[in-house]
Amino acid sequence: MIEFIKGTIDLVTPEYVVIDRGGIGYQVHTPNPFSYQRSRSSEVTIYTYQHVREDILALYGFHTREEKALFMKLLNVTGIGPKGALAILASGNPSQVVGAIENEDEKFLVKFPGVGKKTARQIILDLKGKLGDIAGGLAPDLFTHEEHAATETASKSLSEALEALKVLGYAEREISKVVPALMEEELSTDQYVKKALQKLLK
């Protein structure tokens, strides 16, 4: 099992990042790949989970060990796969997810793609009272660190952000509702993704 990879970000896509470690590029699926955009060419540490099935071998990566631990707990819930767990963590606010589980807030949980009432109830049933060890180490918001000036044009950033939302499983009709609000500002891709997710989860 690969616990973490320390290296430089070589590529950022809507689905994954490629981290260069010793001349080997590791493809790592992350909740919000664009949160690594500002880290290009500087060394980062990504905490990884290796997912193995008969037809797939994939690495999933996270900013913190606590975020990784929450992802692994979500995978143990019936009806939640890696893609669904990534979508839940993509809001950048795992402490809010933990709070919703502890408070049995089904209305909040069903806002995530692929999570219906039955799955939300299952998440609460399986995880309530079992996340105390994770909650203490979670930052209120993983992506509130200082924002750097975006290198892309706003339109390119917005296009990338919309693509990232599709990868997470949000439908075109859901995405189209938040586009007007996103177009009001010139943001980096990461900021657009974060703002869109905040609006989609309201």
UniProtKB/TrEMBL annotation:
One example of a Gene Ontology biological process annotation: DNA repair
Xref: SUPFAM superfamilies: DNA helicase RuvA subunit, C-terminal domain (SSF46929), Nucleic acid-binding proteins (SSF50249), RuvA domain 2-like (SSF47781)
DNA repair keyword on record: yes
Annotated region described as Domain III, given as residue ranges: 153-202
Gene3D superfamilies in the record: 5' to 3' exonuclease, C-terminal subdomain, DNA helicase RuvA subunit, C-terminal domain, Nucleic acid-binding proteins
One Pfam family here: HHH_5
GO molecular function: ATP binding; four-way junction DNA binding; four-way junction helicase activity
Subcellular location: Cytoplasm
Ranges of residues in domain Helix-hairpin-helix DNA-binding motif class: 72-91, 107-126
Database matches in SMART domains: HhH1
GO CC annotations on file: cytoplasm; Holliday junction helicase complex; Holliday junction resolvase complex
Keyword list, A-Z: ATP-binding, Cytoplasm, DNA damage, DNA recombination, DNA repair, DNA-binding, Helicase, Hydrolase, Nucleotide-binding
CDD domains linked to this entry: UBA_RuvA_C (cd14332)
InterPro entries, A to Z: DNA_helicase_Holl-junc_RuvA_I (IPR013849), Hlx-hairpin-Hlx_DNA-bd_motif (IPR003583), NA-bd_OB-fold (IPR012340), RuvA (IPR000085), RuvA_2-like (IPR010994), RuvA_C (IPR011114), RuvA_C_sf (IPR036267)
Source domain of life: Bacteria
SUBUNIT field: Homotetramer. Forms an RuvA(8)-RuvB(12)-Holliday junction (HJ) complex. HJ DNA is sandwiched between 2 RuvA tetramers; dsDNA enters through RuvA and exits via RuvB. An RuvB hexamer assembles on each DNA strand where it exits the tetramer. Each RuvB hexamer is contacted by two RuvA subunits (via domain III) on 2 adjacent RuvB subunits; this complex drives branch migration. In the full resolvosome a probable DNA-RuvA(4)-RuvB(12)-RuvC(2) complex forms which resolves the HJ.
Membership in a protein family: Belongs to the RuvA family.
HAMAP family to which the protein is assigned, alphabetical: DNA_HJ_migration_RuvA
Domain note: Has three domains with a flexible linker between the domains II and III and assumes an 'L' shape. Domain III is highly mobile and contacts RuvB.
Function: The RuvA-RuvB-RuvC complex processes Holliday junction (HJ) DNA during genetic recombination and DNA repair, while the RuvA-RuvB complex plays an important role in the rescue of blocked DNA replication forks via replication fork reversal (RFR). RuvA specifically binds to HJ cruciform DNA, conferring on it an open structure. The RuvB hexamer acts as an ATP-dependent pump, pulling dsDNA into and through the RuvAB complex. HJ branch migration allows RuvC to scan DNA until it finds its consensus sequence, where it cleaves and resolves the cruciform DNA.
Family annotation (NCBIfam families): ruvA
Designated name of the protein: Holliday junction branch migration complex subunit RuvA
Source species of the chain: Metabacillus indicus (Bacillus indicus)
